[in-house]
């Protein structure tokens, strides 16, 4: 007997979250993209495994976690595209029981930043570090909205393990209950673990470019499916103005360093790590397996799914331009 998506959705809880066991058993039956090019899949899998699993030479910790702890892509004051995401969350979330989904949440810092911006946690950090990368630390957090519900996803084993560890630490510290936080493995070429029209806010940051241009409309419309009328999508995309090849040259490395001053503490590992990413990303883009697409074009992809543009924040860096799209679901989508 064939399982339908309606049958899978029927198991969702009151927040629209599909139980992990049911979703993991059924998600492979519901792709949203055409079959991936096998060459692209092979290159992509090998690259992400090496890139995300690499550890620092002088410190036994994953590069991804260490570098993102330094917020190297935002600067000291948590600016850049994530600064725009945090601002948007602060502007839109006022309920005492917000419901938020963070797709591809990385090692867990996205969860901390979004929760802080949404007022789910309040900061007790000293004034001199408030608004900086140092404030994003559980030791400064205090639970303020215990009725909030957040679902976070990741796909790669390394990131998923880090994300689960972050959630477990938050529960152990009394910053969350088991009911507050849900974790799912999600492949963005499959349906999300969410019921249709169930979500108030979905955040999809800096992931949707790691696929072909022809795949991106399917992925974005699948995310839009989950947003309820009046809800919002906050998504960041690498602008088509970015040239990965230039980012991998010596001059590119120097320019990246000026744009990311917080990489200095891990510079000896940062440069080769990012140069490797630039080389592979350039190749994937040249082959058409990945695509940097402007936020305006993403908005056009979303319109058939009943989404309307609220705002587009431009990339703040001329060398590493990442744009932020804020889109809302029509109250009466056709």
TrEMBL record:
Protein name according to UniProt: Class I SAM-dependent methyltransferase
Domain of life (superkingdom): Bacteria
Family annotation (InterPro entries): SAM-dependent_MTases_sf
């Amino acid at each position: 007997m064939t399982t339908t998506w309606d049958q899978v959705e029927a198991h969702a809880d009151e927040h629209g979250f599909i139980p992990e066991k049911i979703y993991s058993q059924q998600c492979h039956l519901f792709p949203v993209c055409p079959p991936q090019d096998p060459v692209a899949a092979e290159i992509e899998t090998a690259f992400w495994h090496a890139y995300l699993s690499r550890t620092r030479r002088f410190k036994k910790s994953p590069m991804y976690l260490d570098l993102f702890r330094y917020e190297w892509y935002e600067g000291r004051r948590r600016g850049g595209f994530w600064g725009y995401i945090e601002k948007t969350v602060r502007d839109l979330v006022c309920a005492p029981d917000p419901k938020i989904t963070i797709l591809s949440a990385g090692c867990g810092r996205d969860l901390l930043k979004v929760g802080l911006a949404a007022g789910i946690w309040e900061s007790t950090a000293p004034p001199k570090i408030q608004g900086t990368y140092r404030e994003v630390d559980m030791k400064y957090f205090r639970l303020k909205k215990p009725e909030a519900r957040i679902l976070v996803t990741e796909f790669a084993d390394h990131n998923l393990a880090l994300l689960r560890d972050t959630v477990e630490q938050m529960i152990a510290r009394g910053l969350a209950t088991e009911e507050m936080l849900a974790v799912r493995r999600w492949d963005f070429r499959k349906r999300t673990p969410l019921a249709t029209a169930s979500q108030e806010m979905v955040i999809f940051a800096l992931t949707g470019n790691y696929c072909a241009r022809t795949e991106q409309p399917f992925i974005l419309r699948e995310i839009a499916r989950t947003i309820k009328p009046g809800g919002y999508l906050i998504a960041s995309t690498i602008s088509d103005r970015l040239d990965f090849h230039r980012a991998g040259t010596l001059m590119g490395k120097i320019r990246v360093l000026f744009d990311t001053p917080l990489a200095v503490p891990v510079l000896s590992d940062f440069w080769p790590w990012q140069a490797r990413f630039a080389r592979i990303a350039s190749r994937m883009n040249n082959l058409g397996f990945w695509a940097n697409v402007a936020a305006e074009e993403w908005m056009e992809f979303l319109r058939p799914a009943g989404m309307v543009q609220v705002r587009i924040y431009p990339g703040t860096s001329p060398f590493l331009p990442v744009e932020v799209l804020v889109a809302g679901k029509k109250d009466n989508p056709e």
